[in-house]
Amino acid sequence: MKVKHGFSAVVMFVSCFTALPAMAATFEVPRSFEIMYVDLESSRQFGNDFKVNVDEGPHQIVVRFNKILRSGGDSQTFQSEPIVLDLQFQSDTYLSLKAPYISTVRQAEDNVKEPQFSIVDEVSGQEIDYKQQMLTKKSGLQNTRDFVTEVERLTAKNSMKVNASSAGPDVAPVRMSDDVELQMMQFWYNQSDKVTRKNIRVWIADDLYKPEVSSIQFEMSTFWFNKADKQSQQAFQQWLIKE
């Protein structure tokens, strides 16, 4: 009996570890850059400022050039605007952002305006293709800026431009008004495939529902639904019925 109990304990112990979700991919930046957000969540929830682990699939990662140069007892900080990267991760992918070494003020100032880098797959050693967008420079205190909202508006605005200029399946119109939350809910729903649209509808009926495979479209749709007031939520639900 003691052996059986011991074996059962070992099985339960191993099962606890095998049940944990495995992180399938890694993204890393050099010390002259920082990772700000992963799918609009703080990078500290995924790892740290320089390396994060993510699941297999598409991810939106926000980085920026962030360099401190010291001369004597003085130091000077150089920061670029946040850069939004749309990356695709396969199982066991290890992507690294590669950037030139910065040692002078002139080099740092140039990188603040236009950061120079490439993204390399460490497994194959090849550079990869990726989509890049950069926030517009703003004056004033940077620590008071709501970067998450700025990134949402930038990606939504540019995606709408792409959709308007390219042929494709019919897309339900987005009502142009001051109701930003409603517009964003409609926009991300329109960006979703059939499975994700079904998941969004089910989640609205049961906010405890979690799809087997999530996506940025599902996460953004639910984010804006939670952010919206009751009137906008009802307007979105009515819009879905007509959809």
Summary keywords:
243 residues, alpha+beta, 2 domains, 7 helices, globular, disordered N terminus
Question: What does this protein look like?
Answer:
The chain is of the alpha+beta class. It has 2 domains: 25-136, no CATH class; 177-242, no CATH class. The protein contains 7 helices and 10 strands. The chain has helices at residues 2-18, 105-113, 147-165, 180-190, 194-205, 216-227, 230-242, and strands at residues 25-28, 33-38, 41-42, 51-54, 57-71, 74-79, 83-89, 94-98, 118-121, 131-134. The strands form 2 sheets. Strands 2, 3, 5, 6, 7 and 10 form a 6-stranded antiparallel beta sheet that branches. The protein has a 4-stranded mixed beta sheet with strand order 4-1-8-9, with no helix packed on it. Strand 5 (57-71) and strand 6 (74-79) form a beta hairpin. The longest helix is centred in the middle third of the chain and has 19 residues, at 147-165. The protein is globular and about 65 Å long. 21% of the residues are buried.
Architecture blueprint of SSEs:
Layout: H1 2-18, E1 25-28, E2 33-38, E3 41-42, E4 51-54, E5 57-71, E6 74-79, E7 83-89, E8 94-98, H2 105-113, E9 118-121, E10 131-134, H3 147-165, H4 180-190, H5 194-205, H6 216-227, H7 230-242
Parallel strand pairs: 1-8
Antiparallel strand pairs: 1-4, 2-3, 2-5, 5-6, 5-7, 7-10, 8-9
Helix pairs in contact: 4-6, 4-7, 5-6
